[in-house]
Amino acid sequence: MTKSTGPSKSELLKGTLDMLILQTLTVQALHGYAIAQQIELLSDAVLSVEQGSLYPALERLQKRGWVTSKWGESPTGRRARYYTLTAAGRRQLGDEISDFDRVLLAINRVMRRA
Amino acid sequence: MRLLDMLRYRLRVLLHPGRHASELDEEIRFHLSLESMQREHAARGALSATNAQWAAQRRFGNLTTTKEEAREMAGLGFFDTTEQDVRFALRSFRRSPGFTAVAVLTLAVGIGANTAIFSAVNAMLLRPLPFEAPDRLMQVSLTVPARGDSPGRDDIPWSYPKFAVFRKAQTIFTDITLWSASQGTIRVGADAERTNYEVVDGHYLPTFGIRPAIGRNFSAEEDATPGGAKVVILSDAFWQRRFNADSAVLGRSVSIDGDVFTIVGVLPAGFRGISGRAELFVSYMSQDAQMLNEPFSHGWDMIARLGPGVTPERAKVVVRQLGGVVADAFPNPRIKNERWGAIARELDRTRVDPVVRRSLLVLLGAVGLVLLIACANVANLFLVRAAGRRREIAVRLAVGAGRRRLVRQLLTESVVLSMLGGVASIVVAWWGVKLLAALDPTKTLRINLGGIGAISFQSIRLDPAAFAFAAGLTIVTGLVFGLVPALQSTRPSLAGDLKTETARFAGTRGLTSRNALAVVEIALAVVLLAGSGLMIRSLANLIGVRPGFDAERVLTMRFNLIGVGQDSMPAFYDQLVTRLGSIPGATDVGLADCPPLNGGCNGTILVHRDRPAPAPGAEPNVGVHWVTPGWFTTMRVPLRSGRVFANSDRRGTQKVVVVSETAARRYWPGEDPIGRPVSVFQGGFDVDTAYVVGVVGDVRFGTLDSLPEPDVYLSYYQSARGRMMMFVRTAGDPRSVIGAVRREVAALAPGVPLYDVRPMRERVADAMGYARFSATLLAAFAMVALALAALGTYGVISFGVSQRTKEIGIRVALGATRQNVLRLVVGQGVGLAVIGGALGLMGALATTRVLRSLLYGVAPSDPATLVAIVVVLVVAVIVASWLPARRAAGVHPAEALRS
């Protein structure tokens, strides 16, 4: 009945997942499955998210106003929900990327020195 | 833009949670079907459709968790958790029906009583007056400075001439009206009845924003000439009742006390005047022209509506100045340099008598204390229950439930319980409101109390405000009694709680909280006991007051004689007294114009004919009463000296008066008043000299708790009057002669209605109405409080005993006697009582002061009362701890140690 909040690894993952989702949406609006495919494809299957965790993340992004959704028709003719990046989402993505770059840079420095 | 997106999202989720869930389902189904299709395709037939679906699901992860997390993210998690907790709470209550029943009942009484008293407070003190824009209405009164032995007053009504001057001079009010409540014998056709009506001017209805439903208001001409057109407007109720709602009623007539009035209008339903009881509205210009022209005949109340932009404060200043204008126009002819004035106050402030306001607030405070005690009691029950659940809670903490989560769940439990209590409380509140309306202490005391009749105990009802109050109270209550146990029982603890054996001894921390709660309960109960004890003492003092007459077996009833000339009245009284006296079962008969304990009797000034005239304004005031010679015997008013009236004291013979003891003592100190010449300015006794022939015992004509005033009695036979109350002393039940009395009166004066028919004993009881009302309710609350406190103490002690069975067993094994054990346990209870009682006494001393103006003959810190309640308390606590103590004393050491 109570869900355990996992270790800090998932915290990192959660933030990263948001960033990855926002990134996939920069080109065009996508439905959930396509977002998962895209992340896997672009990272050469290195980053394979547990697909289920995508949907809570999408709710979270919508709640923050970074993403909006609309029902549309998929190429196969079935109804699918398409997610679009908002202007605020785009700004957020920029912030997250520069944060991420800074962290990456720092980690690299540490690793090289050690 | 982003805000808009966020808002739109949140609204969608919150307004259509069902749709949100089904859309998520659809989205996930879509995802899974694409994934399985993709896998099936990639395997090129090596994977069956079913296996592909399985693989897709594995890749997706836990479906349920995902959905739950998504809902949590979307902000719906709160509702899910709450629903879960509520279910869990209901299940656990079902498992312990005894606990649940006691707790729900306690809460239902606590919340219900609060809601009922709140309804009364709301109706009497808070709810806007039932008139249009009531906050713009002001009441304007005349003021008179203190003089001689009479204090100044600021509530004097108006005379018509003074009103006319005021109206002409003022510019701040848009509407300004005069009214006065009255009662008369109304005839429509042959049927006569006694009815309340109001005498009003043409501005009355516009001031309150009322328009006639049929016909018209009084016209400008009808409003201008004293002694003018006799016109009447009907209330909807009267129109329905007496005219069967006949729309062709205009132009027909109604007779009021023998005068014929033409109907010009009918009012909309619901409006019963500011008195709240008027059936008819009569034009004030139809009144006696002479009375309207008399500047010192003060009998009209003024209500005024503020003009646009005029603040009440401004109006008060202006009215004060206008008071000077009125005083200049009508200087007091008898007393030079006495400055009258005028004062305005918000009509809302005059809505109830200060006594009513104070008793209601006291009751509200008292009933609030009862609820606090109830909370403490239920919190106690929860703590005991939590002690039984320590293992369950410890297990859940151990397997990783967050403390916040557990606290939330326990609070949900207490709020759910409180809501059950809240629902049950509606029954209690409904019943309480009925009881309040039935007890209505103002019903019979109208004449002694200020306030607006439209605001009465009859207007108390369970309205939306009351339900909102109950709902709010329910939730707050649930949180209040739930918080301590919830925090207490989830304190991250001791792995020891997992081990049952140690848990037995680990209850000490809970025990301290429980002791504290019991102490609080006892202290609050003491405060309530003190308050109710004082009110009961006060009531006892009132009951002990000797009103100066014997009320047992006396029937009283009123009637007004209309259309009989002054000269034939004495013969009428003779016949009436003889006829009533001949009724079987009647022993004595007397008439008086104003019953004792009623207030509002006549009064005027007394002049000693054998002394130099005092300075104007320094003349003594006396009450004036008309009686027949037999009245003193009928009422058993004792004769102190001289004689009472004789049947031979008639018109034309020497005028005589009888005075009361207080009058004799005050106006003839150290002298014999018998034979002294006086004049009273009423009943034709102002010009002639009358002689005092007797002194009788004091009678309390005003209220029970005010000392008797000096009174002078005149005989009906020397000063005829149409207004009379009959007093018939009977051998048996006074009610048994009602029929006979009606027949005799009807034979003498056909068609004159008898009213206010009641045994004198009831009148005396009514005179104590307020004291009895407050004392009864406070006593009821105090009893509930005491019972709850005793129950709480019992619970604490009894739980303590069950926890200490082993310890007691050891004591007994080591040689403790039965006596020792009893003393140990009862001593614990007495300890609680001493601390709680001391705190409570301090609280009582601090709070009973608010009762001062409600008490009669007892000080708020009355030591006898305080000692008495301490005794009651100690007895209650000893009884409450005796039962568990006996159980403890019966502990068999071997069994206790083995268990």
Task: Give a quick summary of the entry.
By secondary structure, chain A is of the alpha+beta class.
Notable characteristics:
heterodimer; A: 114 residues; alpha+beta; Arc Repressor Mutant, subunit A; 3-stranded antiparallel beta sheet; 4 helices; 57% helix; 14% strand; globular; disordered N terminus; B: 899 residues; 4 domains; 6-stranded mixed β-barrel; 27 helices; 22 strands; 51% helix
- What fraction, in percent, of the residue positions of chain A are helical? 55-70%
Total domain count of chain B? 4
Q: Kindly state the number of beta strands of chain A.
A: 3
Largest sheet of chain B: 6 strands, mixed, barrel
Q: What's the arrangement of secondary structure elements?
A:
The complex is a heterodimer of chains A (114) and B (899).
Chain A: H1 8-24, E1 30-31, H2 32-42, H3 54-63, E2 67-73, E3 79-85, H4 87-113
Antiparallel strand pairs in A: 1-3, 2-3
Helix pairs in contact in A: 1-3
Chain B: H1 2-15, H2 17-43, H3 49-60, H4 63-74, H5 77-95, H6 97-126, E1 137-144, E2 153-156, H7 160-169, E3 173-188, E4 191-200, H8 204-208, E5 214-215, E6 231-234, H9 236-243, E7 253-256, E8 259-266, E9 280-283, H10 289-292, E10 301-306, H11 312-329, E11 341-346, H12 354-388, H13 390-398, H14 403-439, H15 464-489, H16 500-503, H17 508-544, E12 554-560, H18 569-581, E13 586-592, E14 603-608, E15 621-627, H19 631-635, E16 639-642, E17 656-660, H20 661-667, E18 677-680, E19 690-696, E20 711-715, E21 723-730, H21 738-748, E22 755-759, H22 760-767, H23 769-803, H24 805-813, H25 818-847, H26 863-889, H27 893-898
Parallel strand pairs in B: 4-9, 6-8, 15-20, 17-19
Antiparallel strand pairs in B: 1-2, 1-10, 1-11, 3-4, 3-7, 3-10, 5-8, 6-9, 7-8, 12-21, 12-22, 13-21, 14-15, 14-18, 16-19, 17-20, 18-19
Helix pairs in contact in B: 2-3, 5-14, 6-12, 6-14, 6-15, 7-11, 12-15, 12-17, 12-23, 14-15, 17-23, 17-25, 17-26, 18-21, 23-25, 23-26, 25-26
